[in-house]
Input
Amino acid sequence: MCSRNGIRGAALALALALSGMAIPAAAEVPDFDADRAFGLLRAQCEMGTRKPGSPGLEELRQLIESTAEEHGLACVRLCFTATDPLGGGEIQVCNMVVSAGPSGGERLWLGAHYDTRPVCDRDPDPARRSEPLVGANDGASGVAVLLHLMEILGRTPPSAGVDFIFFDGEDSGTTGAPGTYCLGSQHLARTWQDMGSPLAAGEPRGLILLDMVGEKDLRIPMERYSLAWAAAWTRQVFDRAGQLGLHAFVPVPGQPVIDDHEPFLRAGIPAVDLIDFDFPQWHTTADTPEVCAPESLDQVGRLLLSLIYEP
Ligand SMILES: [Zn+2]
Output
């Protein structure tokens, strides 16, 4: 399939041929397989809850590791213990970092949280509010896009480094206490430069966070904190979406959301949260694959592939 770059590459090749210079190979942007990504969303939901301490959470960690291994990508678990904001006990929180492309240098960071909320505390039925979230949109959607991108980058290594960051401990917070959310990202924003961290060898070009990107009729405005603290980076990402004609991205200010990008913004790292927070099934038992669509994952996947292969 001829990509946008293919056309531009052909024009460049013609110009260089006329000038007698060597013709470089045109960069190709690989295709995003939306059905494959949606299958990865379903597979996570079939693992059951991915709340702290659950077998489903560990199964998903192993899927991230096996996908990395299968595609020749380095994968590291960065674990620490924290107090469970909902249960009060001690929980293990493990961020996972998968690296693709050349090591070091300026790198694109792509993130999503892979844990799911232990309770559906916004469910319309009070009797179901203690059930754990399936998290098809709130959790699995962003992870599905990242897992499929790992497969693509394993097959077609990018010319600049990409780090996939799977955040843990995002969604066990308590209402009215924003510091109890985003445990993994708060920790990583403080420690990413420490010795032994896989991120310390490079410099972030910026973080793009995916959260709730699977809803049918996806509509992603410019999240307010991203726009306030990383305006240039946010506009760069939305400008690319506009150039690609991706209709899910609407370059108007959206509402502010406390999410995994926020600790990095505070640390001075450009970060943009791609999130459709207008989601009626948020933190209810209805956050299932039925309210999600492959086309939505496709919009996000195609944007990221362009930013990776046409930086
Ligand atoms: Zn949530």
In short: Residues 1-26 have pLDDT under 50 and may be disordered. The longest strand covers residues 90-100. Residues 117, 138, 171, 283 surround zinc ion (CB under 6 Å). Residues 136-155 form the longest helix (20 residues).
